[in-house]
Design brief:
The protein has 27 helices and ten strands. The chain is of the alpha/beta class. Among the domains are: about 55-155, Tetratricopeptide repeat domain (Serine Threonine Protein Phosphatase 5, Tetratricopeptide repeat); about 335-430, 3-Layer(aba) Sandwich (Rossmann fold), CATH 3.40.50; about 440-610, Rossmann fold (3-Layer(aba) Sandwich). The strands form two sheets. Strands 7-6-5-8-9-10 form a six-stranded parallel β-sheet. It has a four-stranded parallel β-sheet with strand order 3-2-1-4. Strand 8, helix 26 and strand 9 form a beta-alpha-beta unit. The relative contact order is 0.05.
Length: about 600
């Protein structure tokens, strides 16, 4: 083909294109109409017809790419939108949507570059600011994300999604009051915004307002009944309100919508455990691990449930996962020395370190002499209020308070990992009737003092509340279940032959009219309290450190226990292999302290009479 022929062919093609232009425009307009109405299949068909006539129709390429991205065909979306940009490089919306396609591919740096290019072309492009903020947030670049969310809102103050996402960013940073304000603003702009109602509920729950959180979750579900996260979150709030049965229904609703929702299976297990259904809880935890084998809380809680059932071998193994849970991951001690796992190590120095509450230390310090019997030189690091008392343990060379300089050591072991290291079974629990001793001089002084105060009448110690542990919502919820209001103890005082002593160091004060002797203001550490308890005849307490202290001293102890007991008290037992002097009085159903205290009062009459 010579030059004249080529020129003629080009002019003919131009005339054909001009003639087809009305047809292309009509097809594109129809496609756009379908697209805006949500009929994407019809829109896609017409965009392709446009491109069959004009393969360089950039808007059709772009919008076909948007549809592809929406349908999860992200590679095709990148290709199509990239071709549109090659034809029309200065359209900001093309660059923004290409950024979204890259984002969905997981190419966050490429997405950020596209959003920044869109904003170079159109600085007031609120949606591009919003998308940039969201991707920066996903990258952990919170400060930049915060600025970009604010830019989106500067150019479009009526942007509910931007206010909602900014709220979630603030919530993540612990700025709950600001987050709540953002969620409320988003809802004000879009009252049926189910996600914002759900997020508002989570922030309110984080602030300790479960009743308001429940209302927000219910509002979310009013607008979006098939919202599994809102069902799940509603269950969490109801659990905090002490309504495990209602929580179970919520978790089941979430699972009906999303059967592979691992966290819902996990929380369902926790709620069933609270209802006294440990076998069902174990089944839930195993389901979680089938879905997510690396779920640390499911492993840990499965371990706790197995320990409660007396299945100690697997229970101790699973319990090691506690160090990967959000509650304890930051508390793990990363010593360069290896952890002792029960192997022979004659002559080497072992550091045993306390890891959780006072009660845990009092219960598991009994293992230190067993480690010493294996030829180890044992040193212990414990909470400072326990140092003086634990010096009575045999075989321990040194007791160090937490925060003091540690001596040299070769091996270490967290205290609650000692049963695993020593292969403890139900039959081999070191259950000595007494393994701690009070200071003899203090004990004698209290014997003289109490004799002058109450003579030979029965002396009974009482504790009614644990540490509220407000730093953790989960632990605080447990404390609310294990503690009781002191006025609930009134039936015990109907026994006139006894004299009652408070063993409650902190927590809610007893009513002034109670016949209760309170010298706890004189107690500076656990050794002081041990000397007092050594002169009592009986200790009655909820599940707190007082139980462990009194039982470790060999005193009779009556434990007032909740319906969903701590694993260490086992299920279906009134006694304890850990403490031979312990008797358990357990709620028959959640919150039923009345029947527990009625039984205790009846037994107390027999005890004091004897």
């Amino acid at each position: 083909m010579n030059r004249m022929q080529r020129r003629a062919e080009k002019q003919r093609g131009k005339r054909e294109m001009q003639a087809a232009a009305p047809t292309i425009q009509a097809l594109f307009s129809a496609a756009l109409g379908y697209h805006q109405a949500g009929h994407v299949n019809e829109a896609e068909r017409l965009y392709r017809q446009v491109l069959a006539v004009n393969s360089r129709h950039s808007d059709s390429l772009h919008l076909l790419g948007v549809i592809s991205q929406h349908n999860g065909r992200h590679d095709l979306a990148v290709d199509l939108i990239g071709k549109a940009i090659a034809i029309s490089p200065r359209d900001a919306s093309y660059h923004s949507n290409l950024g979204t396609a890259f984002w969905k591919q997981g190419q966050l740096d490429a997405a950020i570059a596209c959003y920044r290019r869109a904003l170079e072309l159109k600085p007031d492009y609120a949606k591009a600011h919003f998308n940039l903020a969201t991707v920066l947030w996903k990258q952990g670049r919170s400060r930049e994300a915060d600025a970009s969310f604010h830019s989106a809102l500067h150019f479009n103050p009526n942007y509910p999604e931007a206010r909602d996402n900014l709220g979630s960013l603030l919530k993540e940073q612990g700025r709950l009051t600001e987050a709540i304000a953002c969620y409320r603003e988003a809802i004000g702009l879009k009252p049926d915004y189910a996600e914002a109602h759900n997020n508002l509920g989570t922030a309110l729950l984080g602030q300790g307002h479960p009743e308001e959180a429940v209302a927000s979750y219910r509002k979310s579900l009013d607008f979006k009944p098939d919202y599994p996260e809102a069902h799940f979150n509603l269950g969490t709030a109801l659990t905090e309100l002490g309504q495990p049965a209602a929580a179970v229904a919520c978790y089941r609703n979430a699972l009906a919508l999303r059967p592979d929702y691992a966290d819902a299976h996990h929380n369902l297990g926790a709620a069933l455990k609270e209802l006294g259904r440990p076998d069902d809880a174990i089944a839930c935890y195993r389901t979680v691990l089938a879905l997510d084998p690396e779920h640390p809380e499911a492993h840990s809680n499965l371990g706790i449930a197995l320990l409660a059932q007396g299945e100690l071998a697997e229970g101790w193994e699973k319990h090691e996962w506690r160090w990967r849970t959000p509650q304890l991951i930051k508390a793990r001690r990363d010593f360069p020395q290896p952890q002792w796992r029960g192997e022979a190590a004659d002559g080497r120095t072992l550091l045993i370190h306390a890891e959780q509450g006072f009660g845990d230390t009092l219960q598991f310090c009994r293992y230190a002499p067993l480690a010493a019997e294996r030829g180890l030189r044992v040193i212990m690091e414990v909470q400072p209020p326990l140092v003086r008392l634990l010096r009575s343990l045999p075989g321990v060379e040194l007791i160090v308070g937490h925060g003091e300089q540690l001596p040299e050591f070769d091996l270490h072991c967290p205290m609650l990992s000692l049963p695993l290291a020593l292969g403890t079974t139900l039959a081999t629990i070191p259950g000595a009737a007494r393994y701690l001793g009070p200071d003899q001089a203090q004990t004698t002084a209290w014997r003289t003092r109490l004799g002058a105060m109450v003579g030979e009448r029965p002396r009974i110690g009482l504790a009614w509340a644990g540490n509220p542990r407000d730093h953790s919502r989960d632990l605080a919820a447990v404390d609310r279940r294990r503690s009781l209001a002191p006025d609930r103890l009134t039936p015990l005082f109907e026994q006139s032959d006894a004299r009652f002593f408070s063993l409650q160091k902190d927590g809610p004060a007893a009513p002034e009219h109670f016949p209760l002797i309170d010298v706890m203001g004189e107690m500076n550490d656990f050794a002081d309290t041990a000397a007092l308890i050594a002169n009592l005849d009986l200790v009655i307490s909820v599940d707190t450190a007082v139980v462990h202290l009194a039982a470790a001293l060999g005193k009779p102890v009556w434990l007032l226990d909740r319906c969903d007991p701590c694993w260490r008290w086992l299920t279906g037992r009134r006694d304890s292999p850990w403490y031979p002097t312990l008797r358990i009085y357990r709620q028959p159903c959640p919150g039923d302290w009345g029947s527990v205290l009625a039984e205790v009062a009846d037994d107390l009459r027999g005890f004091t009479g004897a």
